[in-house]
Write a structure and sequence with these properties.
5 helices, 2 strands, mainly alpha
């Protein structure tokens, strides 16, 4: 399939090149004819023939712009790679490799580090005073909250 596409594209390019070459030869021939015999029909034919290479050039320019836009889309803006590197660096900075536990020992084992954090935060957020719901209700009645 790929070989057929390549040969077709090669064939089309050869035909376009041949057409351009023939147009340039025709323009030269009509220029020479117009210089010797400047009639209206020759001048119209010359102008018409001179515009055809411009149309071909315009078509090529449009194709080149399309390819350029595609390349810019594919290869141009590499923010995703930049952001991926930033995220990688950020995660490397946030990884805790060792910790001193409550007994004063330095540990490097990830499961022990997780257990140390779990016990620390559970002790931190466990209430030290045992309050009853009645005490909480009395406290909330005495607090004046803005309306």
């Amino acid at each position: 399939m790929r070989g057929k596409i390549i040969s077709y594209k090669s064939y089309k390019k050869k035909e376009e090149t041949k057409k351009e070459h023939n147009l340039h030869r025709e323009v030269k021939r009509l220029d020479l004819l117009a210089s010797h015999n400047p009639t209206d029909s020759v001048m119209k034919e010359l102008l018409k023939t001179k515009h055809e290479p411009n149309n071909i050039l315009k078509k090529k320019t449009e194709e080149t712009l399309l390819k350029l836009r595609q390349q810019h889309f594919e290869f141009g803006n590499k923010t995703s790679k930049f952001l991926a590197n930033q995220l990688k660096q950020q995660t490397e900075k946030s990884i805790i490799t060792s910790i001193v536990d409550s007994s004063g020992n330095i540990t490097h084992d990830p499961s022990t580090i997780n257990d140390s954090f779990r016990t620390f935060y559970s002790n931190l957020y466990t209430p030290t005073q045992n309050t009853s719901p009645v005490d909480t209700e009395i406290f909330l009645r005495n607090v004046s909250l803005p309306k």
